[in-house]
Structure formats: structure tokens, C-alpha cells
Specification:
This protein is mainly α. The chain is built from 18 helices and 5 strands. α1 (2-129) crosses α2, α10 (300-333) packs antiparallel against α11 (342-376) and α12 (380-395) runs parallel beside α14 (430-450). Keywords: Coiled coil.
């Protein structure tokens, strides 16, 4: 029995001893756990504080960066203001000295205005008559003209420098760069060549003038030919058609076919300016020049193809004339009976065959040229509008004598609309581009011209442009002339007045149009 209780009590006593030993450890563990919880809470508080501090630091950095940027901006503004102040002070100082020069220039201008009539008379006389003479005779002529001006009591500058008066430094520098000799006689000749009204004849045994002209007009595609050149007529026709400069050499072999050009024997037919060259009428009108310009800018493929075809046609026709000449020469050189000489017969057959091939090629190029012309027709209304606008500008001097506009002024506007038009940058469709060019041509022309007109004349000019615009639109639509007139009447008078005008009792006359009957009535 004792053993039984012993087996039970002994383990309990051992367990109690173990509990007694473990109890401090448990208490220590609990204390450590409580301390860890406190520390974790403190760590969380510290992390929160750190995050708040980091946000504050970032905010302070941003504020600091803004302050630094503002400080730099203030420094830059300060430097700019200081620079402006320095420039202003320098400008004031320089203008104070410039004032004296401007006052002197104003006095000089008054003196120039006092002698402008005499100066212009001397300069224009020199331009018209001085080119034929050498330097000494030119000076003698100037002296003689000066005596006549004094006798007529016309004031002029005694020290008038013709070169400086009739040209500017930029032109003279460009002429020197284009191989013009740097002497007064050559510069005077260059001035005459630039300002001529009649086509100049140049005596140039040294070839210096030829070199200068080829360099000077290189950008305008100047062509050089000779009266002895078989292709002279074709080159002349091309220059007249496309408005390019032409330098003709060997004038001692002068061809009378040039007479209509030198005499400016032109005639106007239906808005076109024509000149007869041999048996052909060459179009010199502004319409052709504008059509060439718009094709070159908008359809360079068509323009190049047309130029190549014209060149090929000229070459083919020249070759055909040579073959015909060779054929006649072969017949003329034949000796004895032609039928007995196989060599001549073979030569004649070869020439005839080659002439037939060339004639066939001419026909082929004519057919292709017709196709190219059909593509070019869509730009004809634009060219006609440009031509009509120039002739309108040319007649504005009837409204006021100060309204003087040159052909170059109109061509500059046309080239500006074609080559410097911002509205065309993102447009690829050719029809849309044509519409934009047409609209901008009218707008730019009106803006540039109207700013120099009296206010009361601006509406007159605008109405003239509207008439041209409506007429061009009517032509593009293929409408009758009467519809254009009706549309213009609506624009001028309003719908009701235009209707009354159309209902007027106008008699009909057999063989006359309604518009002609209206004119008769």
C-alpha cells in the first residue's frame, strides 16, 4: 500500500518542484511580452513621427525649391532690367547724336526734293540715249543736258552720281559676284540692262557681258542661242511662251523673224496677248505665265512632262527639217541617171524611212501633249483670274492717279500664294489646294492693294474682285455668261431688284443673244 502511495506522491512532488522552478521563467516571459508590446507601440509612434517628419521635409524641400526658383527668377529679372536700363541709357545717348544726323538728313531730303525733277530728267536721258556712247561722250552729253536744264530754270544736283542714284549697293555687289568688271562704264551698262524699255543690243568682243548676263539671269533660266543656230526659232518661241530671258548672239546674221518681237507688235484677243512669229501666234499673256507658274508649283510632274515634250517636239521638227534638207541635197548631188545608182536609191530610202519615223514620233508627242494640256485645263480659271486682276489693277489709275501697280507686283502676290501659303501645308488633294489658292489669291490681293487706297475706293475694288471671282466660278461650272451676269446682279442689287431686271420687257432680235438684245435695248 505504501508503495502505491509512494508511486503517486513522488511524481507529484517532482512536478511541484518543476512548477516552482518554471514559475519565475513564466513571470519573466510575461514581463518581456508586456515590454515588447510597449516597445512595439513606441516603434509605431516613432514610425508615425518619422513619416510625418519625412512629409514635412519633402514639403520644406519643395518650398525651398520654389524659393530658389523665385530667387533665380528675381535675379534674372533684375539682370534683364539692369541690361534694359543700360541699353536704354546707351540708346538715349546714341539717339541724341542720331538726332543731329536725322536733322541733317531731313535737310538733305529737302534739297533732293528741290532737284528731283532735274535729277530724274538727267537720269532718264542717260538711260534712253547714253548706252550707245563711250564714257567720255556720255560725260559730254550730261554736260550738254545740264546746260539745257539751266536754260529752262530746272534745278538739278551738280554732283549727281548716276551709279549711286540708279542702283543700290546690294545690286552692285551682286553684279560683281556675277563677273561684272568693277569699273564705272560696266556698272552703268549693267544699270541700263536692268532698266531697259527697248531690247538692248550689246557689243561684246571680249565676252565679259555674255558671262555676266548668263550668271545674272541664271536663276530665271536664261537661254543662249544664235541667229546661226538651226534651233533658233524654237528657242525664241519657248522663251516667248514661258517668259524666260533670251541672249541671241551673232547679230550680224540677223533674222527678220525677230522684228515683231523687237517692235513689240502685239495684239490682244479675248484677254490674251499675242505676237505673230512667222506663221504662228505666240501667247505672251499673263495668263500663260500664271499657268506655267501654278503648274510648276502644284503639278511639277505635268510641268516637267510638258517641257520635255516641247523640247522633244522641237528636236523632232529640227531633225525632220535636216532630213528633208539631206534628201534634197542627195537628189541634187546625184550624177547621171538616178535609177542606175543603187547607192543613191538606198540613201534616199533610208532618209525617207527615218523621216517617216520622226514624223510618227512627232504625232505621238502631239497626242501626249494633248493629254497633258487636258490636265492643265483645270488650272486655267486660276490663271485667267490672275490675269483679270492685273488688268483691273492696271485700270485703277482711272479712279485715282496714285493707284499704280506693276506686273511684277501682281506676280509677287501670285508667287507668294503659291509658294509661301501656310494654308496649303497639310493639304494633299489637288482640287482642294486649287480652291485654297484661288480664295487666298483674292484675299491677299485685296489686303495688299486696299491698304494703300482711300476708304471710299476700297468697296469699288472689292466689287471688281467679286465680279472676277463670280465669272471664274461660272466658267469652272461651265455655265452660260447670262447666269454669271444674273448672279452678279443679285450681288449688286439683291434678289428682288435682280428679278425685276430680268423681267424687263427686252425685245428679242434674231441672231443676237439675250445679253446683246439687252445692250441694244
Amino acid at each position: 500500500m505504501w508503495l502505491f502511495y509512494r508511486s503517486i506522491i513522488c511524481p507529484q512532488i517532482g512536478y511541484a518542484d518543476i512548477l516552482k522552478k518554471v514559475e519565475p521563467l513564466r513571470n519573466e516571459l510575461k514581463a518581456l511580452e508586456e515590454a515588447a508590446g510597449v516597445n512595439e507601440k513606441k516603434a509605431e509612434d516613432v514610425e508615425t513621427t518619422i513619416a510625418a517628419l519625412e512629409k514635412s521635409i519633402a514639403r520644406y524641400k519643395d518650398e525651398y525649391a520654389v524659393l530658389i526658383s523665385q530667387a533665380q527668377s528675381i535675379k534674372a529679372d533684375l539682370a534683364s532690367v539692369e541690361a534694359k536700363v543700360e541699353r536704354s541709357v546707351a540708346l538715349i545717348k546714341s539717339l541724341s547724336s542720331e538726332r543731329t544726323r536725322w536733322e541733317a538728313g531731313s535737310e538733305t531730303f529737302r534739297s533732293q526734293m528741290a532737284t528731283i525733277i532735274g535729277d530724274c530728267l538727267l537720269s532718264s536721258a542717260f538711260m534712253a540715249y547714253g548706252g550707245y556712247f563711250d564714257q567720255s561722250l556720255r560725260l559730254s552729253l550730261i554736260s550738254t543736258w545740264a546746260i539745257h536744264l539751266k536754260a529752262a530754270d530746272i534745278q538739278f544736283r551738280q554732283d549727281l552720281a548716276r551709279v549711286e542714284y540708279l542702283s543700290n549697293p546690294d545690286e552692285r555687289l551682286r553684279w560683281q559676284a556675277n563677273a561684272l568688271p568693277n569699273d564705272e562704264l560696266c556698272v552703268e551698262n549693267a544699270i541700263i540692262l536692268r532698266r531697259f524699255n527697248r531690247y538692248p543690243l550689246i557689243i561684246d568682243p571680249s565676252g565679259q557681258a555674255t558671262e555676266f548676263l548668263l550668271n545674272e539671269y541664271k536663276g530665271k533660266k536664261i537661254a543662249k542661242t544664235s541667229f546661226l543656230d538651226d534651233a533658233f526659232r524654237k528657242t525664241l518661241e519657248s522663251s516667248l511662251r514661258f517668259g524666260t530671258p533670251l541672249l541671241v548672239q551673232d547679230v550680224e546674221s540677223y533674222d527678220p523673224i525677230l522684228n515683231p518681237v523687237l517692235n513689240r507688235e502685239v495684239r490682244r484677243t479675248g484677254g490674251r496677248t499675242l505676237i505673230t512669229l512667222g506663221d504662228q501666234d505666240i501667247d505672251l499673256s499673263l495668263q500663260s505665265q500664271c499657268l506655267n507658274a501654278v503648274l510648276k508649283a502644284e503639278r511639277p510632274d505635268v510641268d516637267n512632262k510638258r517641257s520635255d515634250l516641247l523640247k522633244m517636239q522641237g528636236e523632232f521638227q529640227l531633225r525632220l527639217r535636216h532630213l528633208e534638207k539631206d534628201l534634197l541635197q542627195a537628189l541634187n548631188d546625184a550624177e547621171g541617171n538616178l535609177l542606175d545608182d543603187d547607192k543613191i536609191i538606198t540613201n534616199l530610202e533610208t532618209l525617207k524611212k527615218e523621216a517617216g519615223e520622226v514624223a510618227k514620233k512627232v504625232e505621238e508627242t502631239d497626242a501626249i501633249m494633248a493629254e497633258v494640256d487636258s490636265v492643265s485645263q483645270q488650272y486655267v480659271p486660276l490663271a485667267q483670274a490672275c490675269s483679270a486682276m492685273y488688268f483691273t489693277l492696271d485700270t485703277l489709275n482711272q479712279v485715282h492717279f496714285l493707284y499704280q501697280y506693276s506686273l511684277q507686283f501682281m506676280l509677287d502676290i501670285f508667287n507668294f500664294v503659291l509658294t509661301q501659303n501656310d494654308n496649303l501645308k497639310s493639304v494633299e488633294d489637288s482640287k482642294r489646294r486649287l480652291e485654297i489658292i484661288t480664295k487666298d489669291l483674292f484675299q491677299v490681293t485685296y489686303c495688299r492693294v486696299a491698304r494703300g487706297m482711300l476708304h471710299r475706293d476700297q468697296i469699288t475694288f472689292a466689287i471688281l474682285l467679286v465680279r472676277i471671282f463670280l465669272k471664274g466660278r461660272s466658267m469652272m461650272a461651265g455655265a452660260q455668261t447670262g447666269s454669271f451676269e444674273a448672279e452678279f446682279n443679285v450681288f449688286l442689287h439683291g434678289q428682288e431688284a435682280a428679278t425685276l431686271l430680268s423681267k424687263q420687257n427686252i425685245p428679242t432680235i434674231k441672231g443676237l443673244t439675250q445679253e446683246q438684245c439687252s445692250s441694244v435695248a
